[in-house]
Design a protein that fits this description.
Length: 108
């Protein structure tokens, strides 16, 4: 399935706009990840631990968008938008991604 941030797909014609598909994915960090990130924050650099978590939550959101679109009989999702955030409180933190796009049928 084609999933794109653009509003059209080069070389294809959108025959029907089915509906919006959206997902929210939240993934927790853990004490070790938070501790390592705090060390990185003090000395500078990038946090590969957090980067892996963000990559994981992004990939999960794309998989779920594709699954929802497939259930609608879509051939593609256009106009995909993703928003990342952090949910924290009570000394716990989690990453969240919200994704939304339009499921479409392409002309065969």
């Amino acid at each position: 399935m084609i999933i794109t941030t653009t509003s059209n797909i080069e070389g294809a014609h959108i025959e029907e706009y089915l509906q919006l598909v959206s997902v929210n994915v939240v993934i927790g960090t853990n004490f070790f990840s938070d501790w390592m990130a705090s060390i990185t924050d003090i000395f500078g650099g990038t946090s590969s631990t957090y980067q892996r978590k963000l990559d994981s939550v992004y990939e999960e959101a794309v998989k779920r968008i594709e699954k929802k679109a497939s259930k609608l009989g879509a051939d593609a999702v256009v106009g995909l938008k993703m928003d990342f955030g952090e949910v924290s409180g009570k000394e716990k933190s989690m990453f969240m991604v919200s994704a939304v796009g339009t499921a479409v049928k392409l002309r065969k």
